[in-house]
Amino acid sequence: MARLDLQKRLAILSDAAKYDASCASSGSSKRDSRDGKGLGSNEGTGICHAYAPDGRCISLLKILMTNFCIYDCAYCINRVSSNVARARFSVEEVVRLTVEFYRRNYIEGLFLSSGIIRSPDETMGQMVEIARRLREVENFRGYIHLKTIPDADPALIEAAGRLADRLSINVELPTDASVKAYAPEKDPRTIRKAMADVRLKKEAARERSHTGRRAPRFAPAGQSTQMIVGADGATDTAILGNATRLYASYGLKRVYYSAFSPIPDATAKLPLVRPPLEREHRLYQADWLLRFYGFDLDEIAGTAPGGNLDLDIDPKLAWALRNRHLFPLDVNRAARELLLRVPGFGVKTVTRILTTRRHRTLRYDDLTRMGAGMKKARAFVTLGGWTPGALTDSADLRARFAPPPEQLALF
Predict the structure, then answer these.
(1) Which of 388, 371, 375, 385 is nearest to 327 (CA)?
(2) pLDDT value of residue 230
(3) Helix (H) or strand (E) holding 58
(4) CA-CA distance, 353 to 46, in Å (whole number)?
(5) Which of 77, 124, 268, 393 is most buried, judged by most C-beta within 10 A?
């Protein structure tokens, strides 16, 4: 088979990498090359991202080392039985691409994943070698995220953590049963053990020795994981429940929900249960409520009849509509925990409310200037110059926020 040129391989392997969602880069330690030594920089809160109009992150060189794979996971477009164009980079080519893209100011870091070639150890070994050459030969100080392989030798994963800012290990699907059904070559127990090892090594890296010296750094931006949603019959409540356990058990920075869409040449019969992208969006919103807004899983589940989130309205609004007896809230008196539950109020808005109301009484226009989404919030709050009256309990309140019905085409 004729070898494709570098540009064609880059097109294939960057397109193949779009299915890897877990490429956020926040939380790393600060490094830069302003002292004239090294190449690249990485600010304390993570690198800056640029986004394409469709929302894709374009500040990282996000590629697969190869989309050849010995596994046959039913939901993966790069599975061994899939009829897709294949390509592969050498270690030297990935290093050269990263450095040259950085020097042209196209990127600020590297997100590297790969199909499994020959064996997990050989694949992981090549990914570690890429990171090693960038750090030790090119003196690259930019951001590196490696998608690690749980079946690989733990020594290779440890070496990856010494070189990369963040590691991620995919849990693949929401339940063990689904993994066994659709990815029988992968073992959920092995995946969880690898994630636990990463957590333990990261915690050990924070400790000092008896002489006061710190241990070598290990994945300073932590670890994340990716869960494919919509490829099996798991409900949204089951998905969020699994994510909650993953956060608690492995100290994850983020669980990424990747919407499954049918693959044109797919041979497997996978149940596409609900519209994938809308579902992914609602899961991210619910995840955010669980992590930053004080909601618990039972409250989210209470807004999800049959175990699935409402696709027409966001989960916080769904919760508020089911708990109208708690509203309207007096913005000038309500506690922070309750203000965070007002639809249209984000964490920053609530912080501004609490800071400002110490000095004066807030009015409706003040909230608009603070960035509150008053189109949603107005039915759930009272404050100087505003009361919702009967709006809070009106029968058509949900209809005000849900998208209008569409006329279906006849032909």
Answers:
(1) 388
(2) 87
(3) none
(4) 28
(5) 124
Q: HEC profile for 72-96?
A: CCCCCCCCCCCCCCCCECCHHHHHH
Q: Share the mean pLDDT of the chain.
A: 86
- What pLDDT was estimated at residue 322? 95
Q: Are 347 and 353 in contact (CB under 8 A)?
A: no
> What's the N-to-C CA distance of the chain in angstroms?
46
Give the separation between CA 389 and CA 369, rounded to whole angstroms. Answer: 23
Q: Which two tokens stand for residue 143?
A: 């951001």
Name the DSSP class of 217: P
Q: Which helix (H) or strand (E) holds 145?
A: strand 143-147
Residues 6+ apart with CB under 8 A from 59: 47, 48, 49, 50, 107, 108, 109
Q: How far apart are CA 156 and CA 194, in angstroms?
A: 11
For the chain, the structural domain boundaries read 6-307, 323-401
CA angle (346, 347, 352) in 5-degree steps: 100
pTM of the predicted model as reported, rounded to 2 decimal places: 0.85
CATH fourth-level superfamily of 6-307: Aldolase class I (3.20.20.70)
Angle between helices 276-292 and 315-322 (to 10 degrees): 70
User: Over the stretch 68-126, which tens digit does the pLDDT of each residue have?
Assistant: 999 999 989 899 998 899 999 999 999 999 999 888 888 888 999 999 999 999 999 99
CB 270 within 8 A of CB 314: no
